[in-house]
Amino acid sequence: MSLPSAEDVHALLNAHRSIRSFRDQPIDDALIDRVLVDALHGSSSSGNLNLVSVIKTRDRERKSRLCELHFGQPMVEQAPLVLTFCADSYRTRLWLAQRGARLGFADLLSWHVASFDALILAQSAALAFESHGLGICYMGTTLHSMREIADFLECPTNCLPATSMVVGWPAEAPPQRDRLPGRAWIHDERYCKPTPADIDAHFGEREVRGWERYRALKPEMVERMAEHGIESLAQFYTSKIKYDPDLFAQDSARLEALFRERGFLV
Ligand SMILES: Cc1cc2nc3c(=O)[nH]c(=O)nc-3n(C[C@H](O)[C@H](O)[C@H](O)COP(=O)(O)O)c2cc1C
């Protein structure tokens, strides 16, 4: 089998767009499993321990419940497939116990090791799905509803959802989203702190395009932004209607309790 060319990889990466609207058409089960198995083969894995589990949700009623847990984001219900990528040392700990080995992987460091494996796997799967013409969107709400999603999916101790992804045949073709320019985040030899002028230059373009995009998304958004006194993209991001720092603080405390309870913080 010949390797894809650098040009193919460049084209695949640049074709990425998060897809939030899907055709009502299932994905062949063999294709899903092939992509996932390939993705694990194509992903580095800490110690090659493969501290991951992926749970497929396709049943309509179960997707509806997951949709509620993902703050009602409609694509969770609409997409034919929802994948939940779990950081999982439960299976490995069973294996260790069964072989009379010393138990491990039940601490905060192991949560990171396992969740990195899960995220690396998720991104490999994302690229593989996209290479088949499928569209994906990550669900960051997984972190906010981790306990509820874990319980709904019957995850055991030492197994928690790290991220989720909806997958399906795209019913939209959005334009490519901008990213920060390379000079904002690629450093040479040592970290180079940005000056106020650098911040203006690095964020300038997205402050115009991002602001317009969010305001154009839903007609009621302009009203809501005005109600909250939001006058810029930066103010929007940490407002009550986007990534509210108070909600993040509350959910961080909930996560800490969950890690303690489910064997990732001893
Ligand atoms: C970890 C993670 C969580 C995300 N969570 C959500 C989400 O909950 N809802 C959503 O609509 N998009 C979500 N996204 C998609 C981002 O909004 C999207 O990647 C970003 O706006 C850039 O757009 P693009 O992927 O089309 O290039 C998430 C992306 C990542 C990486």
Question: Can you tag this structure with a few keywords?
Answer:
single chain; 266 residues; alpha+beta; NADH Oxidase; 2 domains; 4-stranded antiparallel sheet; 13 helices; 4 strands; globular; binds flavin mononucleotide
Question: Can you give a write-up of this model?
Answer:
- The longest helix has 24 residues, at 108-131.
- It is built from 13 helices and four strands.
- 52% of the residues lie in helices and 11% in strands.
- The protein folds into two domains: 6-174, NADH Oxidase, CATH 3.40.109; 182-249, no CATH class.
- It has helices spanning 6-14, 29-41, 60-69, 75-78, 90-98, 108-131, 141-144, 146-152, 182-185, 196-217, 219-227, 233-237, 245-261; strands at residues 52-57, 81-88, 135-139, 159-168.
- Helix 2 crosses helix 6 (108-131).
- It is of the alpha+beta class and 266 residues long.
- Flavin mononucleotide binds at residues 16-18, 20, 73, 137-141, 163, 177.
